[in-house]
Amino acid sequence: MVTNTQIQTFGTRFQQMRLTRGSLCVGIDPHPELLEAWDLPVTGAGVWDFSMRVIDALGDTCGFFKPQSALYEEYGSSGISALTATLRAIKDVGALSIIDVKRGDIGSTMSAYARAYLGDGPLGADAMTVSPFLGFESLRPAFDMAKNNGRGVFVLTLTSNPESAALQSAIIQDKTVSPEGCTVAAGIMSRVGRENAADGEHAKLGNIGMVIGATVSERLEGLEGLLETSNGPILVPGFGVQGGTSSDISQLFGTSVDRVVVSSSRGILRAGPDQRSLQNSFKNNLEALKLILMKQNSV
């Protein structure tokens, strides 16, 4: 019987994967226009074929894959079958899966989401994305499941979509962060840091990470201290098509870049369906990212 103390934590696996395969995550986002560009049917079968081709091309070199659940769900049962096959294939190539579901709910419903995505069932992944905007503590079932099963959770914190700024930068009366209150994003960062504090005491990376967009530089100003003490993985979408660049990553995260994994989807996938072209696109993006991160770490 495997006990909790014998399960390797997600934070440990995350850092090991970063060191062996690099900090670039491929978002498996089977948008209808990509399926058409790859001459695939816009169906669950097309999504299955698309996903397998991506993993076949990049599974030996990419350490992180992030399938976007909604782009599978829209095809009903055939899409869900494709998603379960995708998660199995990611595991088979030795990479880590981050299922992008952005779930956030309360009570027994959140517990069911946690069991679905962080358990050992057909939709179980290495980590899931969650939304804290029903209250950070509402995510407790996911945090507990992640700890017990050696999985990870990425909490939406500062996202790239322009509509998010008004909410995530709003001031709340959270005196645990500051007597004058703090922004919603600062409150999330502070709570993530508390969740990961015990791991930090043992010089380990925690299991609770954050999603911070690659284009949020202005909104991150003044939060550098909370970012540094959060002691969790950082997932950074928005690299490539959405406007984020390698230099943005370096400037945004400073000394925290050693906890960052950058996600790119269409910036890599539009090079397909040719396998060699996909591999070259991934390699070029990874090398550009490595160069910037190496420069930052040498400062």
UniProtKB/TrEMBL annotation:
InterPro entries given in the database record: Aldolase_TIM, OMPdecase_type-2, OMPdeCOase_dom, RibuloseP-bd_barrel
UniProt keyword list: Decarboxylase, Lyase, Pyrimidine biosynthesis
Reaction(s) catalysed by this chain's protein: orotidine 5'-phosphate + H(+) = UMP + CO2
Gene3D superfamilies the record matches: Aldolase class I
Coiled coil (residue ranges): none
Molecular-function GO terms, alphabetical: orotidine-5'-phosphate decarboxylase activity
Catalytic site positions: K102 (proton donor)
EC number: 4.1.1.23
Pathway connected to this protein: Pyrimidine metabolism; UMP biosynthesis via de novo pathway; UMP from orotate: step 2/2
Domain Orotidine 5'-phosphate decarboxylase: 23-281
SUPFAM superfamilies: Ribulose-phoshate binding barrel (SSF51366)
Record-level GO BP terms: 'de novo' pyrimidine nucleobase biosynthetic process; 'de novo' UMP biosynthetic process
Entry superkingdom: Bacteria
HAMAP family on file: OMPdecase_type2
Family label: Belongs to the OMP decarboxylase family. Type 2 subfamily.
Name by which UniProt lists this protein: Orotidine 5'-phosphate decarboxylase
Lineage: Bacteria, Bacillati, Actinomycetota, Actinomycetes, Actinomycetales
Chain's gene name: pyrF
